[in-house]
Write a structure and sequence with these properties.
α3 packs across α7, α4 runs antiparallel to α5 and α8 packs across α10. Among the domains are: 80 residues, EF-hand (Recoverin, domain 1, Orthogonal Bundle), CATH 1.10.238.10; 80 residues, EF-hand (Recoverin, domain 1), CATH 1.10.238. It has a two-stranded antiparallel ribbon with strand order 1-2. About 29% of the residues have low confidence. 19% of the residues are buried. With 255 residues, the protein is mostly helical. The termini are far apart. The protein is built from eleven helices and four strands. This is EFCB6 protein.
Length: 255
């Protein structure tokens, strides 16, 4: 039968390595012949670039804590100007700008970063590996202290740890914007505010009910919207206990 002969010939062609040489000269058999492909110059250039691509995708996340601590004080006094300059470059409001634009802003505000420090910072905050700098995350880490550090930046400032350890929630952009907005006001009156927090905390647990927490903020003319309060509680009250650690809240601003 013709069909059986064709299937037999095709199976024979697939099992015999020399079958590639038996095809017509004008038909290119190079993709179907794995043994001859390594000898092609074009194939060599493709395989030589492949290891570099895989290595670039496995770049570890850099720890720039030393660099961030170095410029933290400088940024705390001018972060609003830096944020405004970054937003002007961020036309699409994506929270990121080209690295070249950030370098110009860093030079404008005299951050005094060496070439090596710039390379580390820009590599860390190139979150999408697309050559753009996530300035919102950068400013959040330099202005707010949301993660505890082994060595406090100011040894004189002692914030009592709550009896119940906090289980932080997600650091959303809305949460960061709310915290950055009230940061100057909290820094201005955090010491008396801490004493007021303690006066409401009769059980000395380090935790306050949400209504009391908001009342203290209101007493010091720090008014947050319902949306801002929601995002703050989403971070500080992850387990929905209706209580917030005022020590952890203050610690985010005191550096």
């Amino acid at each position: 039968m013709p069909s059986s002969n064709s299937s037999a010939s095709s199976s024979a062609a697939s099992t015999k390595p020399s079958a590639c040489d038996m095809q017509k000269p004008h038909v290119s058999s190079e993709p179907e012949c794995p043994k001859t492909s390594p000898s092609l110059p074009g194939q060599k250039s493709v395989t030589s670039r492949h290891p570099q691509t895989t290595a670039a995708c496995s770049v570890p996340v850099l720890n720039c804590e030393t660099i961030e601590n170095k410029i933290r004080k400088s940024i705390q006094h001018r972060w609003k100007g830096i944020l405004k300059a970054c937003k002007e470059k961020d036309v699409g409001k994506l929270g990121e700008i080209p690295v070249s634009d950030f370098l110009d802003i860093a030079e404008k505000f005299n951050l005094n970063l060496s070439e090596g420090e710039i390379n580390q910072i820009t590599t860390k905050y190139d979150l999408k590996k697309n050559g753009r700098f996530a300035y919102c995350d950068f400013l959040q880490n330099c202005v707010l202290l949301l993660k505890p550090q082994e060595s406090p930046l100011l040894q004189k400032v002692i914030i009592q740890k709550p009896q119940n350890l906090m289980s932080p929630g997600p650091q959303t952009p809305s949460f960061s914007r709310a915290m950055l907005r009230i940061q100057p006001q909290v820094l201005h009156c955090w010491r008396p505010m801490k004493r007021t927090f303690k006066s409401y905390d009769e059980s000395h647990t380090g935790l306050l009910h949400i209504a009391d927490f908001r009342q203290v903020l209101h007493d010091y003319h720090i008014d947050v919207t319902e949306e801002e309060l929601f995002h703050i509680l989403e971070y500080y009250d992850k387990n929905l206990s209706s209580k917030i650690s005022y020590n952890d809240f203050l610690q985010a601003f005191i550096q």
